[in-house]
Every structure is written in structure tokens, then in C-alpha cells.
């Protein structure tokens, strides 16, 4: 029997991956679903799964830190909502990756490779060098090749929604959560605005206030009141957004 664990701090991607695996690989037994890194490390030690599907970013210990614990012990597949940062790192093919939202055809390719390695009794590869390379690429401001957020999952009551980053008009800090707003919907994510900002393209998304990041293309106009305070009006949303003095330079007439 082939066993696996899934580690992802978001409910929807974790549940969806398990559902898709049940279709793509019915004989695979998922023995653990973990919401954070420390739980995944404990499950690795206690259950010794053959495969670990690890979200690269998780609270407590990242997927990279969990991968260090899995190095040489089980086959690892990284899951990520970021594009481009991992492509070159995975060219050797010893470790696979899945972009969120996971596509059925891409998962089928990953499953086929995993089954081949297990059938050939290939040893799980050491991951230290790969993890170090990925960790360097994941550093904030790592340059033009740095990863960018493509999707974000958010909760509305008992419902979890998946938003494409291209649909988001603005992000707004809301106590322990971050509010995500599109033209027709909104929800909250359990991540601070600062962490989300690290995955955004700074040319496309502008920080206009300590608690607000707006898509530049979503701004219709900026108005200034008698006290010099700037307010943003959006093309597809009635809500207005404040601009702090520190960010007012973005809206000076050319």
C-alpha cells in the first residue's frame, strides 16, 4: 500500500488535492492532512509516508523546512500558488511540483512519475541542495525571478473561495485578517497584509496606505480635499480608499 500526507494551511486546496488524488490514484492512501509545518514533521516521523505533498508556505514551519525533515525518507511534491520561481529548480526531475489550483492533467503526470519511481524502488532523493536553492528564490525582493502570487483562498463563513490574483481590486488589513475585494465579491484570508505583499508584483499592486494595497489598473481617479488628503476612486467598485502621506507621491501630477 502506498501512503501519502498532505500539508497545506488552507482548507480548500488541501481538500481539493485529496479529492483529485482519489480520482487520479485510487489505491493511494492519504494517512494525514496537516495544517502547519510542525504537524507535518510529526506525521512524517510517526507514519513514515511514501509521499509528502507539501505547500511551500505554511505557518510554524514552511514546506521547505518540512522537506528537510523528509529528505531521503520519502518522495516530495511541492504545491504552490506561485509561478516561475521553481521551474529551473525542478529541472532535474527528482522532485515534482504542482501549481495551485491543481489541474487534473498536471496531477496525472505527477502521479505517473511517482508510481514509476516507487515501482523501480528508487530511493527518495536528498533535498538539502534543492531546499537551499528554493529558499534563496523565496526571499522577498529576490529579483525579477521572484515568485508571484497567482491565487488566494479566502473564507466567507463556512465557505472557502478561490480568487485569481488578476481579479483582485484591493487588499485591506482587517485586524488579524486581510480583506480581499474583487469587482463582484469579497472575503477574508488568514494572512497579514505584509505577507501577501511579498507575493505581489509591485508594479501592478501599489501600497497606498499601511493597511491598503490596490491594483494600480483598478484606480479610476484620485481626489484631494482641502486638507491635502488623497482618496482613491475605483473603476469597478463604489468603495473609496485612503492614501497616506507617505504614499502620496504616487499621485502627484506629471
Count of runs of 4 or more consecutive helical residues: 6
Shape: elongated
Radius of gyration: 21 Å
Helix content: 25-40%
How large is the share of residues in beta strands?
25-35%
Calculate the terminal CA-CA distance, rounded to whole Å. 66 Å
| CATH homologous superfamily heading of the largest domain | Response regulator
CATH level-two architecture of the largest domain: 3-Layer(aba) Sandwich
Q: How many DSSP E strands?
A: 17
Report the sheet with the most strands, covering strand number, pairing sense and barrel closure.
Answer: 5 strands, parallel
How many structural domains can be distinguished in the coordinates?
A: 2
For this structure, the CATH topology of the largest domain is: Rossmann fold
H/E order of the elements? Answer: EHEHEHEEEHHEEEEEEHEEEEE
Side by side, the strands of the main sheet go 2-1-3-4-6
Structural class: alpha/beta
Low-confidence stretches: 141-145
CATH class of the largest domain: Alpha Beta
Calculate the mean pLDDT score and round it: 85
How would you describe this structure to a colleague?
Strand 8 and strand 9 (159-164) form a beta hairpin. The strands form 5 sheets. Strands 2-1-3-4-6 form a 5-stranded parallel sheet, with helices on both faces. Strands 12-11-10-14-13 form a 5-stranded antiparallel sheet, with no helix packed on it. The protein is elongated and about 75 Å long. With 254 residues, it is α/β, with parallel strands linked by helices. 25% of the residues lie in helices and 33% in strands. It has 6 helices and 17 strands. It folds into 2 domains: 3-137, Response regulator (Rossmann fold, 3-Layer(aba) Sandwich); 154-251, OB fold (Dihydrolipoamide Acetyltransferase, E2P). The protein has helices at residues 11-24, 37-47, 63-70, 104-119, 128-137, 193-197; strands spanning 3-7, 29-34, 51-55, 75-80, 82-83, 96-99, 148-149, 151-156, 159-164, 168-174, 177-182, 186-189, 205-209, 212-215, 219-224, 230-234, 240-243.
Amino acid at each position: 500500500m502506498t501512503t501519502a500526507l498532505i500539508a497545506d494551511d488552507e482548507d480548500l486546496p488541501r481538500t481539493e488535492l485529496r479529492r483529485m488524488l482519489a480520482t487520479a490514484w485510487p489505491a493511494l492512501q492519504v494517512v494525514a492532512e496537516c495544517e502547519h509545518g510542525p504537524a507535518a514533521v510529526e506525521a512524517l516521523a510517526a507514519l513514515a509516508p511514501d509521499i509528502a505533498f507539501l505547500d511551500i508556505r505554511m505557518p510554524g514551519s514552511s514546506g521547505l523546512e518540512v522537506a528537510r525533515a523528509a529528505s531521503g525518507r520519502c518522495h516530495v511534491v511541492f504545491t504552490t500558488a506561485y509561478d516561475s520561481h521553481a521551474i529551473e529548480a525542478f529541472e532535474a526531475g527528482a522532485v515534482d511540483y504542482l501549481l495551485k489550483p491543481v489541474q487534473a492533467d498536471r496531477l496525472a503526470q505527477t502521479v505517473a512519475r511517482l508510481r514509476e519511481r516507487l515501482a523501480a524502488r528508487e530511493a527518495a532523493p536528498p533535498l538539502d541542495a534543492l531546499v537551499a536553492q528554493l529558499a534563496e528564490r523565496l526571499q522577498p525582493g529576490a529579483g525579477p525571478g521572484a515568485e508571484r502570487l497567482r491565487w488566494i483562498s479566502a473564507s466567507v463563513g463556512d465557505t472557502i473561495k478561490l480568487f485569481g490574483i488578476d481579479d483582485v481590486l484591493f487588499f485591506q488589513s482587517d485586524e488579524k485578517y486581510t480583506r480581499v475585494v474583487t469587482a463582484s465579491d469579497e472575503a477574508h484570508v488568514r494572512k497579514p497584509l505584509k505577507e501577501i505583499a511579498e507575493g505581489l508584483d509591485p508594479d501592478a499592486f501599489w501600497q497606498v496606505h499601511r493597511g491598503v494595497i490596490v491594483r494600480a489598473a483598478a484606480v479610476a481617479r484620485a481626489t484631494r480635499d482641502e486638507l491635502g488628503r488623497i482618496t482613491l476612486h475605483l473603476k469597478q467598485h463604489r468603495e473609496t480608499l485612503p492614501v497616506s502621506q507617505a504614499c502620496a507621491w504616487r499621485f502627484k501630477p506629471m
